[in-house]
Design a protein that fits this description.
Two copies of one chain form a homodimer. The first copy, chain A, has 146 residues and is α+β, with helices and mostly antiparallel strands. Helices cover 30% and strands 23% of the residues of chain A. In chain A, strands 4-5-3-2-1-6 form a six-stranded antiparallel beta sheet.
């Protein structure tokens, strides 16, 4: 299957890593540790994914959640598949804190936007790489940042 | 385990049904077909649930998604675990349409609120009951509406 990342996700995010079944992105908004998993599928709704892909996505979501809560300040995770604007299936995993600018509201549609400095993104990717090594996850490729 | 539904969920929702592992609620806002699954757990984050409960929740979420898309107009499902305000774990499953008052924004925090008429809630519960019968799902109890 030829998989092409949606243009908007491609423009708004850094590609951190790729697995056989997904891409792992970081939204370019440093107000929030905001990660996105994009399963390589043309299906747009979670419940329509084949069961083994649902299970794989759940597994990756848990892994990403563990990474996020262990490496960032986090009072509550927000985990969501929305897709009203970008139809390509993607799962948001966001670390929320009681001091972030949207708390306790949700972050989708927020006007609070602040681009990352590139060294910060490299630092986050390095942490993710170390986390995966520690978890002995080897079937993942870390992307050169652009 | 004694499980008690969070007061806010209890006040804002109709309890439609109960399974061994969860409650199924309908938010009392007729602008959106907005269902909520509450797993019977004290854990607040999905990734901290025991794996078999994660799988069970995924299964129930898919079932509810199928019900929602087959019985309501739906251009996109929104599926999310947020919990910034109500910490008790709960999963939103919402049918969104391009003509609903929040589209394409998200519905959390919306000022568009409209209570259901009771017969409409009964009608929705009856549809859910028939759907479960059709799916030969028997380990579920439908609650008397209050």
């Amino acid at each position: 299957m030829t998989f092409k990342l949606d243009n908007r996700l491609n423009n708004d995010c850094f590609k951190l890593a790729e697995t056989e079944k997904s891409l792992w992105l970081l939204l370019n908004n440093s107000h929030f540790p905001w990660f996105i998993i994009v399963p390589k599928t043309e299906v747009e709704e979670l419940y329509l994914l084949p069961l083994e892909l649902q299970a794989e996505l759940q597994k990756q979501s848990s892994l990403m959640s563990e990474f996020v809560t262990s490496h960032f300040q986090c009072d509550k995770l927000n985990v969501a598949a929305i897709g009203n604007i970008v139809k390509q299936m993607h799962l948001h995993i966001i670390a929320r804190t009681e001091t972030d600018p949207c708390w306790p509201g949700v972050v989708w549609g927020t006007e609070f936007k602040k681009e990352y400095e590139k060294n910060k993104v490299l630092e986050i990717q390095t942490k993710l790489k170390q986390f995966c090594q520690h978890k002995i996850i080897t079937d993942i490729e870390f992307a050169p940042l652009q």
